[in-house]
Automatic annotation (TrEMBL):
It comes from Pelagimonas varians. InterPro entries: AraC_XylS_family_regulators, Class_I_gatase-like, Homeodomain-like_sf, HTH_AraC. Keywords: DNA-binding, Transcription, Transcription regulation. Pfam families: HTH_18. GO terms for molecular function: DNA-binding transcription factor activity; sequence-specific DNA binding. This is HTH-type transcriptional regulator CdhR. It comes from the Bacteria.
Amino acid sequence: MLTLVSALETLQNANLNAAAQVFSWSFHCPGPQPLSSLGVASFPCAPLEDIRNPREVIIVGGPDVTVLNVNKLNVWLNRHARNGVRLSGLTTGAFVLGYAGLIGDAEVTMHWQFRDAFRETFADVDLSPRPYVATGTRCSSSGGVSAIDLFLTFLVDYRGQEFAESVSESMNYVTMQQVQQVASAEASTRTRIKNGPTVAALEIMEANLEFPVTPPQIAAEVGVSTRQLERLFGKHLGQSPKRHYMHLRLRRAYFLLTQTKMPVIEVAIACGFQSPGHFSKCFRNEFALTPTELLKSHRV
């Protein structure tokens, strides 16, 4: 919901600054009325067929990316893509572009929680860590207020840099000059940990979930002893490096199971487990149910 509101607020302020209805918008969907991330109806939507010659198509994706592959929508998007319409995906909207076969060589971005699922589904796509990507006719944002940054770049295209800056100022939005800052929720940001070796160790773990490395290897990489790494993790995270590493791998498994249609065995391998039995046991210890039980409850 925040993503959509951020985008609309930018357009509304643009109209106020221009003292005219420069931008207008409407809401459309390929099927039943969509739900917001809060589980309640968001905005009344008209059928896709009601759109006539749009200049921009903005796809706002929700948390359940498994429902975004809709043939009717894919066909509709391809028709407008052939006409040169710019297509943008917000939060998980890049999944829709991927399912429609419309990313090609373009770079896209999305919310950090869904990046693993996206990589597993679209392994050949260039996934950017930036908060938004605005190049050519395929654009995307990672969700939340990064939609403001993306839409401010649209305002530059339509009305110029000075106008976009005036809109940014009217919104008290001061991060327009930080558009290249990485917003993939790096380890130091998400955990609020400032200790350098601990943050570096976390980043190594997160970059090696499919092929785990050992605590001694991590310690050597960040320049501390294995015992010192144990003490740092105990101090800042309240658990051992091995236990936290397992938590990260299982969290990724949970996301893949609920956000993709990957079989359990493929999820296990993608998270560094060679034995399905060991994966199931560790998963149950973490979440109090097996991967199969999670799938049954989630996909009913």
